[in-house]
Amino acid sequence: MKNLKTAKAAKCLCGKTKDANGNCDGSHANKNKYKKSIVSVFMILLALFSLQSFVLSVDNQVEVKNAKVVWKGFKVTGSHEGLISVKSGSLIFKKDELIGGNFIVDMASLTCTDLSGEYQSKLEGQLKSSDFFDTDKYPTSTLIITRVTKTGPSSYNVQADLNIKGKSEKIEFVTSVYGNKATSSLKVDRTKYGIKYGSGSFFEELGDNMIYDEFELIIDVQF
Fold first, then answer.
1. N or C: which end of the chain has fewer CB within 10 A?
2. In a shared domain, residues 70 and 153
3. Residue 182, exposed/middle/buried by CB under 10 A (0-12, 13-18, 19+)?
4. Rounded Cα–Cα distance for residues 150 and 135 (Å)
5. Per-residue pLDDT tens for 158-205?
6. DSSP at 209
């Protein structure tokens, strides 16, 4: 008869000791099952989070044909204004709130709307020349929104990078969004982009020929 003290306990195939009845207690299987459950739950949560982010972030393309950009320039003796066409653009929303966007403007489309005939052609030609925007060399300008802060039910403080004549500068402005329409008003210091023609900041004794450094852009888009 075998000595019970010296008898070796039977082993399960997994290496675990069987109980008194010769059965594996299954503890190792339960641990593996628990680990697999944690991994499965993690993967599901990750998938749901990714799906939620995808669904909640919506890139709305701007309706280019309905977009309107009005420019206004000011001088000592008065002002001029006109239009510029939007080449492409989009506004990004998350949970119906603006979070980003970008625009490309066709500088060669610049027109003056408060003059006509010879005077209109002359001003448009000068604005497109190297004195101002040099549209042959720099046919487009871009606006890339970098940060948005909601300030009211439909208003936002927007920070963006504005690129004109190949030079990018940070700019800040207010945007209002109503339904599928957005409106912004920007003041731009042209001298930051190397446009110094007629500027009192760089040239003296300009008199009535002085042109103010800042010009205004009023942007209305639909998406």
1. N
2. yes
3. buried
4. 35
5. 999 999 999 999 999 999 999 999 999 999 999 999 999 999 999 998
6. G
Q: How far apart are CA 130 and CA 136, in angstroms?
A: 9
- H/E stretch holding 106 reads strand 97-112
Residue 1 in any domain: the answer is no
Question: Is 212 inside any structural domain?
Answer: yes
Length of the chain: 223
* Same domain (yes/no): 14, 79: no
Backbone angles phi, psi at 108, to 5 degrees: -70, -15
Average pLDDT over residues 33-39: 57
**Global pTM?**
0.75
- Summarize pLDDT for 97-117 with one digit per residue, the tens: 999 999 999 999 999 999 999
Cα–Cα dist 161/155, whole Å: 19
17 and 91 both lie in a single domain = no
Contact between 176 and 31 under an 8 Å Cβ cutoff? The reply is no
φ and ψ of 96, to 5 deg: 65, 15
Residues 167 and 81 in one domain: yes
pLDDT of residue 42: 53
Domain count, the chain: 2
Range of the domain at 103: 62-222
Residue 2 within any structural domain of the chain: no
Enter the tokens of residue 92: 């990004």
CA distance 178 to 155: 9
In three-state secondary structure terms, 68 is strand
